[in-house]
Amino acid sequence: MDRKTALDGISDVVRDVLGDDDIEIREDMAAGSLEGWDSMAHINIVIGVEKRFGVAFSTTDLATLRTEGATVGCIVDLVARA
Amino acid sequence: VIKGLLRYQALDHNRFVALYRKVCRPSGREWAEYLRRHGQLYHLGRDCTILPTASLIDQPLISIGDRACFGNCTLICHDGSIEMLAQAYSVKLDRIGAICVEDDVYIGESAMIIASHGKVTIGKGSIIGAGAVVRQSVPAGCIVMGNPSKVVGKVEDMLRFWEADMLGYPWVDIIAKRAGAFDPVLEPELTRQRQIHYFGTAKS
Question: Which of B53, B52, B190, B64 is nearest to B121 (CA)?
Fold first, then answer.
């Protein structure tokens, strides 16, 4: 899967979870940098991404997304790799 | 010896309970056992943990399943304004509900479950977050937060992330050895490592 398709899909999930259709997502954005993207929203976003693309991330993958400095691009990496 | 005697009197004979609470400071597990034996709850299942500071009002209208775990929370099954309304408006009202907490539920610190009208069921395996004010039934396996409370996620999803978070803890090996959620033997080393992790140094 190309990165643009992944980013578009992730953007849809983020908008849905955060309840804001106007959100613009970029790969360099830190995960959690948007208002409302708290730890629970993070879980729902990643689970939503899994469902959207029919993938299942490993525990190690999930740990990567929780580290300081994790970006939206990290989620794109996982989706694009799957 | 005194503590043992008080514990025996309270748990086996329902005597000196206030003194037992003050002197023995019973654990949540022990207090749940006391409630199971002597409380007025409609039902209280096995292996529950209920802090003595939890406020279970209208106990005959509260049913609690197995392995429920309560922090310093409040469960209430009536509307206290009835007394004022009766006097001020000369009306005769009843405003009573019931609470059913199913198996494996956790209710956090300062959370309130209010059933002043109808039955509120907290579904099996759900988590009620600290400070949540719950007035409606909660489906099984959900995480509920806030006031007014709302379902913010599923426990099964959260578990996957918490397991992933564990991998980042320097003390993950100690947790792997720990039986249950607290071990007094391992706690000092865990505290030391956590202080270093979060503050940079351990308190000497």
Answer: B64
